[in-house]
Amino acid sequence: MNKDVIFLNMISRDLCIKNPSSDIYYNKPDVLIDTGLDGNLALRLLKETNVESDLKYIVLTHSHYDHIGGAKKLRELTGAEIAIHKNGYQSLKEGDGQKTASSLFGADFDFFEPDISLEDGDEIGGLKVIHTPGHTDDSICLLDREDKKLFTGDTVFSNGRPGRSDLKTGDTNQLIDSLNRIKQLDLEKIYTGHGGPGKPEAIDRALNFLKTSYI
Ligand SMILES: [Zn+2]
Ligand SMILES: [Zn+2]
């Protein structure tokens, strides 16, 4: 099985640069990780890379608008199932504009009910779900144990900075605990929510950043 990762919005980076869209990854054979803001654009990127017909799961790393904005449209267009941590499942179903930060973006967001509610330890599309609260209470990382890679969402970025913890359901102490947890994993590469792929050392740097910022 080919388990390559495609960094989708690197391919048409010019299209995404004007908006605050998250990074979008395709983990072969059948999982999309985050959709960015625009479902039509995500579909176009999937078509450009010839993986559109394989797509089964749209896994959202958390419920922030810049990561999930295109999910509903993309589900309509492809029939793929949307999966998110159980805490995010509720906020999307109930239409929580503060928690999704869609009110921050000034967006009139069309909420939707996801298909799959995830918990720590679940497996989806060959990836293990690790609940990593701190940036939000529904943040997850997705681990491929075989290939030693981790999709981190906004828990940590490739530049060694942690995600912010001052938005609704954010918690700095939980973020430190979550970073300490993923630091223990045997990793070769991380795929972050903004700034693209990076090295696992970014996790240590994010922890050091938090220690020096908050002590
Ligand atoms: Zn983000
Ligand atoms: Zn976020």
TrEMBL record:
Pfam family, one: Lactamase_B
Keyword Iron listed: no
SMART domains listed in its UniProt record: Lactamase_B (SM00849)
InterPro entries cross-referenced by the UniProt entry: Metallo-B-lactamas, NDM-1-like, RibonucZ/Hydroxyglut_hydro
Metallo-beta-lactamase domain: residues covered: 18-194
Keywords: Hydrolase
A Gene Ontology molecular function term of the record: hydrolase activity
Cited PANTHER family: ACYL-COENZYME A THIOESTERASE MBLAC2, METALLO-BETA-LACTAMASE DOMAIN-CONTAINING
Protein name (Swiss-Prot/TrEMBL): Metal-dependent hydrolase of the beta-lactamase superfamily II
Natural source organism: Methanonatronarchaeum thermophilum
